[in-house]
Amino acid sequence: xxASGAVKFAGFASRPAVRWTALVxxxxxxxxxxxxxxxxQTKAQPIAADDAAVVAADSALREAMRGADKGxxxxxxxLQFSFVDADGKGYTRKEVLxxxxxxxxxxxxxxxxxxAWRALLIQEVPIADAETTAATTSSAEGPxxxxxxxxxxTLPYRVxxxxxxxxxxxxxxxxxxxxxxxxxxxxxxxxxxxxxYASGRPPVPKTDRIAAIERQKETGAAAVVGEVQTMRLAVYxxxxxxxxxxxxxxxxxxxYRAARVWVKRGGxxxxxxxxxxxxx
Length: 280
Prior knowledge:
Elements: E1 9-13, E2 22-27, E3 31-36, H1 52-66, H2 70-76, E4 77-84, E5 90-92, H3 93-98, E6 107-113, E7 116-123, H4 149-152, H5 162-179, H6 183-188, E8 190-198, E9 204-205, H7 206-219, E10 227-236, E11 239-247, E12 256-265, E13 268-278
Parallel strand pairs: 4-7, 8-13
Antiparallel strand pairs: 1-6, 2-3, 4-5, 6-7, 8-9, 10-11, 11-12, 12-13
Helix pairs in contact: 1-2
């Protein structure tokens, strides 16, 4: 549903334990900034000064978690907050406040509500090192092309606003392009800073994802899409976050929890970040 609050919308992804790491901040309309977090570095360095407030909030949340300061954590979490651990298990805000030690940071999604930055989602993704072979991006995980009623045509979600319908339409356009092996069409709906994070795989930037789709077209490989089992969507001005539980019936790959961050630019919604955590 459409949510009240400022237009700014931010998403972070970081993992200092692996060689390929990045911290991405998305502030719809106001600015878009990228943060690099080298392996030996312990603190992200912002490129855009306007993003200092959300970076400070993220640092404050981490410090409050480490210090078991429930009051401070409570103030920094949105009422709709949820956490997904490395095994794909989901936790509500109440459950997280009951056990702060369970939270591990990887993807942190923040929204600005009533003038204050609050965490909407934290999702752990046990990605592989960047040196992991590209074979891990094999497309033998999803249904075959043409077998895409869900999510290409239907979704288990009731749209509540025109903005949500626009995001859903773009999501389905992205999926249809993957199924059709149409890299050009896929790219039209994806931001240049896009990165895909998935369990057991190295991060995949937009250029690599385009190359993978083109290879699938050449080889006739199956498309990587799963059926959406559950879905939540929140729109904050020109930013949105979609969380789903996806599965590919009849396929060996386990179900996974997906978080997708969207931004609206020039009147068009674009997929800016996608994180998939396998459930165990």
